[in-house]
Amino acid sequence: MKTPLPELRHTAAHVLAYAAQDLFPDAKPTIGPAIENGFYYDFDRAEAFTPEDLARLEARMAEIVKANYAMTGRPVTRAEALSIFRGNPYKVEIASEIPEGEPITLYTIGEFTDLCRGGHADFTGEIGALKLTSVAGAYWRGDERKPMLQRIYGTAWYDRAELDAYLAQVEEALQRDHRKLGAELDLYSVEEDAGAGLIFWHPKGAIVRGLIEDFIRQGLRERGYQPVVTPHVVSEKLYEISGHLENFAQNMFGPLEVEEQRFRLKPMNCPGHILIYRSRLHSYRDLPVRYSEFGTVYRYERSGVVHGLTRVRGFTQDDAHIFCTPEQLQGEFELTLDEAMRLMNAFGFSDFEYVLSTRDDALRTETDPVAEDAIRKALERFGLPHSVDPGGGAFYGPKLDINVRDAIGRKWQLGTVQVDFILPARFELKYRASDGHDRTPVMIHRALAGSLERFFGIAIEHFGGAFPAWLAPVQAAVVPISEHQQDYAREVAARLTGMGRRVEVDESNEKLGHKIRHWKKQKVPYILVVGKQEAAEGTVNVNQRGVEDKRTVSVGTFAEQLQSIIEAKK
Ligand SMILES: [Zn+2]
Ligand SMILES: [Zn+2]
Question: Which of 439, 463, 487 is the last residue of a domain?
Fold first, then answer.
C-alpha cells in the first residue's frame, strides 16, 4: 500500500532538514509539517537562503531520496531528548512542552535525527518526485514577538508526472492571479495611503461589479425579496443585544465615540435587518419576509493576512435575511438553491458541492432536526447530492455551504445559507400565528456570491481575466488601420454604444499590429478592425478572442450577433 501523501510529504520535510544539516550546519531546524500539496521546514539561520541555496538543497535531497534510507523511530526520555537537542532552543522548547505521560520519539534517516511524533514513509525512496518552491519569513509559533525564521516550502509526489502536472497548475494559477490581472486590466487597487485590505474599484472593475449586482438584483426581484438599506455605523448597543460584542469583538473595528456614545462599524448586516422586521407587527400571513441588501461590512483582519480581493477588511455581501415559520424552511431553501444555481450557471462554474453542517450535540434543540430535514428535502428536490459535517454548524443553527470548482479545478466556498434560532429570540421577534398567539419566527441568513470583492477575485481567476461578453468592461474595441478611418471608427463605436454596448475606439498613433496586441492583452472579446474597404462598405473585420478566423460583416450584423451572445450569457 502507498504511503498517504501527507506522510510522504512530511518525510520530505525530514529529508530537507537532513540536507540542511549537511550543507548549512548553522541552520537550526525547528518544525517541518506537511501542508496542502507539499511541506515546509522552518530554520533559524542568520543568513538568508538564496535561490542557489535552494538548488543545492534540492540536489542533496535527491541523493538522500536515492539512498533510500529507512525511517527508524525510537522512544526516549525527556532528559535524553533535552540532552540530544541542547544546542537547539526550539527543539528544547518542544521537548519540554510534551505533556507528562505522552511518548517522546526520535526519528532517524541516515545521519539525521529529528524530534517527531511520527507519521512517515518507511523509506526515503518512496518520495517519487520533489521540488523546493520558495522561501519566506515566518515567526516561531506564528507569534510576531518571537524570532523570525526562514520557511522553505517544497512539494512532493509519488512520481514525476504528478509533480509536473502540479507545477503546471501552479504556473497557470500564477498567470490568473487576480492581483496581477487586477493591475494589468486596471480593475482595482489597494492604496497604501488608505490602508491594507480596503479595495478601490477602478472604472472597469466597477462596471463588472455593477453587472454582477444587476444580475443578482434581478434574481432577488423574481423571488420576492424586498430591498432594504441600513447604516454603516450604529450604536454599540445594537451589538450588545445581538451578542456580537461578546462573541465577535476581536473581528470588529474598535469603537468611535460621538457625544459620549460609542458607535461601531457594522461587521454584519443581520442586526439592522432585524430592527426593520421588529419595527412593525407581523401576521403569519406576511411570512416569509425576505429582506435583501448589498450590505457593506467591515471586519478587523491583521494587516499581515489580508490578501488581494479574497481577504479584506471591508467588503459588500449579497446579503439577505428571511423571517419565516419552521414549516416554510424547506420552501425557502428550495428558493435559495434555485437562486444559487442561477448564479453559478451564469458564471460558468460547474462541479458544485453542498455541505450540510449540523450543530454540536451540546447546542442541539428539538428544532434542529426540523431544519436539517428541510435542507435535505430541498436538496433532494433538485437531485443535489450533499455531504454532512456533523457538529460543524455554527452556534446559531444548521447551515448549508455551497462550494464550486473553478476553470482550473480549484475549490472555492461561495454561498452559505444559515438557519438561525438564536437572534430572533435575542431580539424578541414575533409574528401573530393563525391561532392568535405570538410566535418567534425562524431566521435564515444567506449570501450566495458571498462578498462581491471575493466573488470578483474568484471570477477574475476563473475567467483568467477574459470575461465573457456580457460581463466584459469593454465588449469591443474599434481599431482603425490608419488615421483616415478614425471618423468611421468613431461612427461604428457610436452606433454600438447607442445600442447599450461598451465600446472603445483606439485613438493611438501606433502601428496596427501594436494596437491589436494591446487590445488582446486587455482580453477584449471583440476587436473590430476598420480599413479603407470597411469604411466604404459599412462593415467591420471581426477579430474574436480565442477564434483564429476573422470575418467581415456589416455593423448591423455584428451588433445583432453580439446582442444574442450577451443575452445568452455565453
Ligand atoms: Zn516526522
Ligand atoms: Zn446575517
Answer: 463
